[in-house]
Amino acid sequence: MGVTCELAKRKIMLIKTQKENFYLLAPGIPQVLLLHPILAYLIKLYESGVDLKNWINSFKSNYINFEGKKIKVEKDTIRYYYEYFMFLKEHNYFNSKKTVELEKVRHYRAENIKFYLANTDHISFEVTDSCNMKCVYCGYGELYNGYDKRRGKKLSIKIGKNVIDYIMALKKEYFPFIKTHRKIAVSFYGGEPLLNFSFIKEMVDYVKGIKLPTLSFIFSITTNGTLLDKYMDFLVDNNFLLLISLDGNKENNEYRIFPDHTPSYEIVYNNALRLKNRYPEYFEKFVNFISVIHNKNSPYQVLKYFKETFNKRPIVLGLSGVGIKPEKRKDYEKIKRKTIDTEIKEIPIYYKDIKLSEMPKLKGIEAFIKAYSGCVYDNINSFLYNKDNINYITTGTCNPFEKKVFITVNGKIFPCERIMHKYYCGRIEKEKINLDFQEIADKYNKYYKKMAKLCNNCYNNELCGQCIFQLNLEEKRVRCDNFLNYNDFLEKSSFVISLLEEMPKLYKRIMRNIEIESEI
After folding, report:
1. What share of the chain is helix, strand, coil (3-state, %, to 5)?
2. Which of 15, 425, 472, 507 is an S-S bond match for 23, by CB 3.0 to 4.6 Å?
3. What is the C-alpha to C-alpha distance for residues 509 and 520, in angstroms, rounded to an integer?
């Protein structure tokens, strides 16, 4: 029984790469060490319950058999690496996981929620749930659950103005304490937002009339691009940040169709080209594209297309796996791209200016380097203080309203447009904003308490980007697709380090990217 308990503690992060090198990952240090094969062999023996000191004393051979290889070794060499092993053990290198008390680290009070909302710098409106297209993988389409039924509704201008007034009143109340000298984004979302253009036009006029010292406003819109020819002059005149949905060339874009199944590519391409030719300076500064990766395109194809066609670097997203209807799982799997992990190697050298964190898998590699290299610091606290004294947050869930407040066409209030609609934080009823800050705090605290055990048992908790509101929090036992047990995490770590071994310049580019995105 004693041996079993001892073995249970020996979950050491010993990682083998595709080139058959061994590394020790020490999360608590944090550090990743390249190991000599003899040291890796000793760690393996220790993991299996062998008393290393007795084993060394009784060692009489000139060879060890390790991973199918016969390694010549002298006893003095083994003793040297045993001393190295003891140093690592005594200095906590073998602890494979850090304990996180999620429910204690994240505990909200009503005043926290109110302050986050006062400090938000992004107000987003779902101006309509109507759309003139019927994309195969649409998050509000046939594949998915988790959203309110689409009824062709439009958000009223009165509600829009009331939301702006409510948040501006909070900003005035907290003005001495919130971030200043900044721009507040007002964005328009759908459906296809240009189907409710009158709302957009009136809201722009209204917001422009607001005068608050040190604060200014910018406008943004996400559109399928089919109506750009009608409204581009207005968007240009108001310096809209314009994000156009397009998945690449005609073949890449085949899932983006109209209700009668006719393709949309030619219309969107021609509208974007017309905008580029008519307003070249605006196009260069304010316009970008967003592309979803699926089985009819790849990251490389998308990047190549936009570089050559519009001289743009698009935002690239993976197909969402959240809220798939059980009966539509097979349909989802058919269109999901299966080989996205390996396609990092496709990206050619001439994309020197690419934000690597925009690539789905590279973002995970960047997070791995930040967490375990021991040489990346997000802020002054992480630089000055030992990591053991700093509470880090598991899950990728944002503080409520800190980054954004999102209003749906049905008057539901969220911290983000990606959250399942059943987890709304407040409502607008009879054009009145109803937000109970204590109720929101209690709701978040309850969910974090429920997630605490799962997160604490997950070996991926320092790298987690999972929003808890994309999970089924109402189930008795919450399941998370990003949960990794010990073996799963070793496999993930092996993938990352193997890739960096094969493409050593990638590490340098990622580090340069961290500097650029941190504005160092």
Report:
1. 45, 15, 40
2. 15
3. 15
- In one-letter notation, the amino acid at residue 405 is V
Average pLDDT over residues 251-257: 97
Within 416-483, residue ranges assigned H as helices are 437-456
**DSSP letter assigned to residue 485:** -
Checking phi first, is residue 239 left (phi over 0); if not, alpha (psi -120 to 50) or beta? left
* 228-237 helix and 265-278 helix, angle to the nearest 10 degrees: 30
**Distance (Å, whole) CA 96 – CA 11:** 6
82: nearest Cα among 32, 29, 46, 31: 46
Q: How far is CA 256 from CA 198, 230, 250, 275, in A?
A: 26, 20, 10, 20
List own/partner pairs for 104-107 with CB under 8 A and 24 or more apart: 105/391, 105/392, 105/393, 106/393, 106/444, 106/445, 106/448, 107/445, 107/448
Long-range contacts of 369-375 (CB under 8 A, 24+ apart): 369/507, 369/510, 369/511, 369/514, 370/514, 371/27, 371/30, 371/462, 371/463, 372/25, 372/27, 372/30, 372/31, 372/32, 373/30, 373/31, 373/32, 374/29, 374/30, 374/31
Distance of alpha carbon 470 from alpha carbon 467, whole angstroms: 6
Half-sphere exposure (Cβ direction) of 315: Cα atoms closer than 13 Å: 11
For residues 302-317, give the mean pLDDT: 92
Average pLDDT over residues 135-150: 93
The H-or-E segment that residue 370 falls in is helix 360-372
